[in-house]
What we know:
Keywords: Membrane, Transmembrane, Transmembrane helix. The chain crosses the membrane at residues 109-127. It is built from 12 helices and 10 strands. It starts with 10 loop residues before the first strand and ends in a 5-residue tail after the last helix. Strand 1 and strand 2 form a beta hairpin. The chain has helices at 83-99, 107-137, 140-158, 165-178, 217-232, 235-243, 245-254, 265-271, 279-289, 294-300, 308-312, 327-334; strands at 11-17, 25-31, 35-39, 46-51, 55-57, 65-69, 77-80, 184-188, 195-197, 202-206. A 7-stranded antiparallel sheet has the order 4-3-2-1-7-6-5, with helices on both faces. A 3-stranded mixed sheet has the order 8-10-9. It is 45% helix and 15% strand. It is elongated. It has 2 domains: 2-136, Pleckstrin-homology domain (PH domain)/Phosphotyrosine-binding domain (PTB) (PH-domain like); 139-334, no CATH class. The longest helix has 31 residues, at 107-137. By secondary structure, it is α+β, with helices and mostly antiparallel strands.
Amino acid sequence: xxxxxxxQRLEAxxxxxxxxxxxxxDVIVSFGDAxxxxxxxxxxVPLAHWSLPAVTRLNPGKLPxxxxxxxxxxxxxxxxxxxxxxxxxxxVHHVIExxxxxxxxxxGGLMLGAAAVMAxxxxxxxxxxLVRHAADIAPPAQRAEIARMxxxxxxxxxxxxxxxxxxxxxxQKLAMRLIGPDAQIVVVPASLRGAIRLPGPITVIGEDLVAxxxxxxxxxxxxxxxxxxxxxxDPLLAALRxxxxxxxxxxxxxxTLPEKSLTGYGEKLLAGPLPRPEDEPLLAYFTRAGIxxxxxxxxxxxxxxxVLGLIEADPFRTAEPRxxxxxxxWIALQEICDQ
Length: 339
């Protein structure tokens, strides 16, 4: 049964009743060595160990699933409504049954198949599915909080975000102009060579896109590119993959990630190449924002050879784009990191 250790990273909330007269208690259900372990979520003290081979589902096909350690007459009962855990218990239970000794020539094949199923479930099914599910259902407030956690990690490498009253007003105006309500643009005192969209409504740019440019079009282009890239590859999914399945499960049950689950993620994010979106959806962002795509394209490749599509299909190649910022506003933003 030691193969069941592969499921120790999967946990779910449940409701447990020790006897028919006992009060219902909230518990955390996890896998032990051939057992289900029921733990008090506050004290983390194990309350019961159920033998997996003896676990019986009392209401097959219905939710929440009801289990007993041996049959309906056991008196003790557990309710679980987490579909991942219900499916895992069912699959592991079948694997255990299949792995029991059976006479005949199929014995070796059954045991080998059971081990393979358990390994595949542990490696490819449970953890990735849990992380994807959490990313898919995360509400905006949860995404915003995780974005603030990631920004704090980024700041450990870049330094604290820049802030001056006049520049802060321009930051907010630029965010509204390019992204929309509730969005934030953060400038850090470092060279990022682009913009990074965090899991929530925060986009980080380096001082190099502001102080080192003649006009705001380059910075605006990188900010738009970060929005397009975030649609193709959800930044929250990448952050949760770094945090891991256990931290993600805590997010699903408690609503927050553990405090240190994103440690080191800011450095990892800054070390990797910035994602570049496909030209067609990116050009749609430039069109909606009323901004020329050529300044952004030239910042990637001054020769234009590698970004010819963005230059030739520039929505404002023959028309006048809308100004991104006024001259005074741009100067205020350029001075945002000045001490």
